[in-house]
Amino acid sequence: MMLISGIICMGVQVAKKTRKPPRPGPDELTSIVIAAQKAVKEGRKGFASEDDQVEMLTELELSNEQFWECISKSLDEILSAGPKRSYRGEAPPRKAKKPGIYGDELWAFACSTAWGNPTYLKFVLPGQDFYVHVRVHPDDPNKVKREEGT
Q: What is the architecture, at CATH level 2, of domain 23-138?
């Protein structure tokens, strides 16, 4: 039996399995938050549906302009704190089930500054060039994984 740049067992070479790093990694999370910031700042933003927009603005008692200011501040906060540290989504990211964004990856992060309390921000970035807001609600900092399937 010989070892030649690999593992040889009983005359048969066994291929080494290489593992891909788990998704999302720190670089991917950072690029997602930067893409989201850019989309929001350039006005490429919206809600999954008009009903979602009405529900969210009513629930938060904010105007559309105030809401997007809070989203922008939240994305800035997430980037400053470190997207990996703020990430609260699945690994790999869960897929959206709502019509209009079905199949897009859901990105979920914890933030607080803009909302006044720990908050959970969830969005999708179809093609990474348009921010679609999905949900914002109080965050439980003790929970890292979310079971919500929106």
A: 2-Layer Sandwich (3.30)
